[in-house]
Records
---
Amino acid sequence: MSAGRRDILLALGFAALLAMVPLVFGTRYIISQITLFFIWGIVVTQWNLVLGVAGIFSLAQMALFAIGAYATAMLAYYGAFPLLAAMPLAALVTVAASLLIGFACLRLKGAYVALLTLAVAQVIYLIVVNDTACFTNPPSGCLPLFGGVRGFSRFGDLGFRDLLGSKFYIGHYYVGLGLLLAAQIFCIILIRGPLGLAFRALRDNPGYAMSRGVGRLRYQLWVFGLSAFFTGLAGAFYAANFGVVGPIVFSVSMLLFLLAMIVVGGMGTVWGPLLGAALLMAADEGLREFGTLREIGLGLVLAIFVILLPRGLSGLRRR
Amino acid sequence: MEIFIQVIASGLTLGAMYAVSTIGLALVYSALNMLNMSQGALLAFGGYVCFYAMETLGLPAPVAMLAAMVVGGGLGLAIYLLVARPMLGSPMFETQIFIATIGIGSVLQSVVLQLFGPQPKAQPLNVPGGVSLGGVVVPWQSLLILTIALAMLAGVAWLLGRTRAGLAIRATAQNRDAAQLMGIRIGQVYAQVLMLSGALAALSGIMVSSLSGLLPTMGADPMLKAFVICVVAGLGNVPGAAIAALLLGLLEAIIQYLFGVQYAFAILLGLVIGVLIWRPYGLFGKRQVVRL
Amino acid sequence: MSLLEIEGLEAGYGAQAVLHGLNLTIGEGSFAALVGPNGHGKSTTLRAISGLLRARAGSIRFAGARIDRLRPDQIVAEGIIHVPQGDMLFPELTVIENLRLGAYLPKAAAEARTRLDEVFSLLPKLRERQDQVASTLSGGERRMVGIGRGLMAGGRLLMLDEPSLGLAPIVIDQIYEVVRHLAVSGRTILVVEENAMRIAELADRMHLMDNGRIAWDGLGSEFLSRPEIRAAYLGG
């Protein structure tokens, strides 16, 4: 059995197990936390493709997530789109944005890419936060075009409230699970398939691969764009799940949290990022009451892992 | 004419301030290929140490500034010894150090938050009043910043260009192996460069906070600007970074005047992205052969 | 008396081993040449001696003391001067700054002035070019700066890695003129060369490398008369 097939079966197995969770544990808190894990899971699996597989040191991933979330909220709020239609549209908007960013940044070398994508993310954040001119004036008060500091709320939901009543969060849980499953299978296909092979060739021997006509930029753009689709979808689902979108999705500590998941789990591996996400979210639960110490702990975890265990937990097995 | 003088004065002040922290970043990158993402936190540390020394310990301003620079240099040294040195030989050094310093930056920033709290504070190092130039009042504070920054830039230029240690730094930046074959102990050069960069960051933090106040997160924007300046100049190009800092400071002042403060940074970054599409290795950067 | 003694040296890059138990002895005051085809570890040997590459096994002794655990700067301070392959100059520094860096260590710096005169008399072109930035020089001139920079350090063992590689024939003659001068100066010299026939005329001792080991060594005059070597190098 090929490694790809094994991983896909594994993914389906995990999904089946997770699908049974709501039947066993009923509490809303646990279910919503696992739903949040699905969201971050999608983001880290896709970011991992960009960072660890395609070798693009992009820090714009959270900005893409934010674009997905904001596009959903704005389509629903201003355009009165139903969320089910707004979400895939928002994902496409994210892809378009990622291609623009990609064209601007990907021709550059590693460190430049990191700085430039960070700068792009910051520009988007500043545009959202600094825009104070009222675009509309709903009863709740002045609302700038991009929602300003307050962000968007009351832009509809996925309809589970009508369907399931107070148990609507279980509906969200299954949507999240389905999206994460799709995103992870996409990752497996990409890492284990020919595109992943091409990237390994590029990474291990750039000169040779280039002389054989393996065009780096084109592959990178493909990965960047495709992973942006799922990232945007994750953002869209985030909007739908919480019913609020604000500038907090741009925050540095969020970026740090997600980056730490990938580093702890193992960059470039199939299962590492999800493992890291599960571990760090569990640890975060434990540290919740410690306030600022949580940030210190997170920063230390990130630094210590990079220094002592650069391949992450997944790398332990191979040693 | 008056507006012109005002814009030039504030642009030069901004630029000189950026230049101080930017050359530190550029030096570190040129010597170690290290992007120090904890620079922003070092800025904040510097600002707060100066605040603490003056406000709580009652020390005179020059001593407080010196203390901040010593603390900044010490943190730079600690970052070298504890973070950079263990991974120096790694083939993934550039990516690893980037991620690790993001973590360290977050730790340092949280420490500042823990020690001083989240409320904004005013930097006590502040000179009131101003001087009239061509009918425009230019604050003493701006002139002081400009003077200190230029003195500092001149000092760094002297250090790099005229001293034995500076020659060793330049040699290490240009060819690491060859530098070792000359008998240069590159570990020592790395440590010196990070200390110098830490001290410059602290000084820059004092300047920034004297204009816009102290906040634990105050370093984030100046750091991003410093990086942008480095990128425009071509990463690791130290003199280019100083020139680009002054140019971008002026440009920012002009944009602020024309379009308003809130859009200045966004427009600036837009311009930078344009520059990079036009010249991917920066304005003064040379196209380097990618090391295979 | 032997100045450099290498025993069972193993070294390489990443997972790839290049040297497999190399033994090599260089006598004080001798002019030794390390020859052999590309990719068999000649440059790797020099990099291991100067500490740029860590030895994985074996020992390197210089003037009786182990040096294989020292840092490159300490090894330079011991008196081993390595003029590396290619130019490896400091491209944005001037010729004179490059030369000064050769005498970076305090002991060499004290004698820098007289050494500089010696270097300029041996390589007069460098005097004309002294304020020029290294990256603007021609290939031959760069090579001369590299050799001059090595000479500035003084030292007890001078190692030259392929001093004539990739140069035009007329420039190679100029470089060899310098090497010939060094050969008769009484210094201890180790030259890595691919062009074995040419260096054999100058060298006291030849060391032929094959796949990470020394396959043959002997006198320079003997080297040229060995039939198997003539076969390998002259194809007949």
Note: Residues 251-319 of chain A form one domain.
---
Amino acid sequence: MNITSDITLISLVQQASVLVQMVMGLLLLVSLLSWSYIFSKMMTLAKARRQTSKFEEEFWAASDIATLYQRASSRPDNVGALERIFESGYREFLRHRKSGTLESAAVTSGVQRAMKATFQREQDRLEAHLAFLATVGSVSPYVGLFGTVWGIMNAFRGLANVGQATLAHVAPGIAEALVATAMGLFAAIPAVVAYNRYAHDADRLASRFESFMEEFSNILQRQFKPTGR
Amino acid sequence: MASAAFAPNRLLGWLLSFLVHGAFLAFLFFGVSWQRHQPAPMMAEIWSDVPKPATAREVTAQPAMPVTPPPTPVPTPVPPPPAPPAPPAPKSPPVAETPNPADIALKKKKQQKAAQEEKKRELARQRDKLLAEQLRQERLDALKEQRQDEQRRVEAELQRRRAEQLAQNAQAAQAAQLDRYKLAIIQKIRNSTEVPEGVPDGLTLEVDITILPDGEVLGPVRVIKSSGNPRYDAAVLRGIQNAQPLPLPSEVSLRRQFRTTHLQLHHEK
């Protein structure tokens, strides 16, 4: 019990071998980066959700779609993902109307393609950096384990020169090495949790976008008919 | 467009990330104690009744004693100063009665001499006064120091008494807890003991048992004092084996005291 009494966190890190220290540094860096993504992603997704709800409300309450479109195209920096999808679809629809295309199916499929393209761009943005979080979550425990194995190997190698081996000879080395595993887990756990959470959030948003796209193309098709007649 | 919307979030994300790591490190440094301390054994001197009356008398006596001394030193040094000024007063009047002009110079000389002597005496008196004052001050200081010493002693005494009281209380509490757990053990043994028919009331069996931390009884039970009835003894020993695991306190420090336990098992219907 008294063997561990003089171990502090700083000495654990300082006395570790260079490779273990490198592993620790790498894990700290990765952890910092993944936490920064966790926070920025959290804010981005929350903002996207807020904007989507707001736009859906506006869209279903609005009597005139043209004014919505004008507003969306007038301030392109400040609109949400769903609004951008709507804008691209409606722009395509206007173009068709201007060029005098009369065929309903052609217009609808054109509008849908335009919206699909924007949707994919938006989805890509929502899911950006999620792959990084997934990688951190799955790899950093192994990196930490690597540091630990290396540290324990060193601890046992040092034991070879000692005639009478006791636990006191290896315990500090093993404790040092285990810090690397602890750091790996510290980096991995939040990353895994955040990845699962954000992937789910992004999926839900994407399905909302998709259902909106379907509904909006229906509306446009209905609008097209009277003008085409 | 996209980068403009993302930049502030990234910055804030980094900031919060550093904050989280800083907080976690701070927790590791200050929240977790990396040293393992064995709780030091508590030492307590048990005084039955010796210090209490003594300190009580001292406490009541001390305030009375220091109050009376301070006035006495003040009057004693005052009398000495009035004595020296008396002699020079009567000398000057006879000198003033002679109107002889020839004597004027002499008279003047005499007067000067008198004045000088007067001055000397005045100086002497002042010296005396200063000395007296100094003496008085010293005596006062000594008294004050004495009083402070006494006060300090009284306080120390009080503190010691308080500490003793606390220690006694703690011991009493621990003893009460030990008794409670012991009673629980005896109760459990009694519950699992089947006393055979025909065993008379009022039998007492004393045993020593060694209890492992998980409540198991280690090795054979040592009978310290048999009840005189072998059937009762055997029943109780069987009961002890059946009662395992025995209930033990959850505190480690208390549990250690149960390593070897002396039990008195009393039989009554």
Note: Chain A has one domain: 11-228.
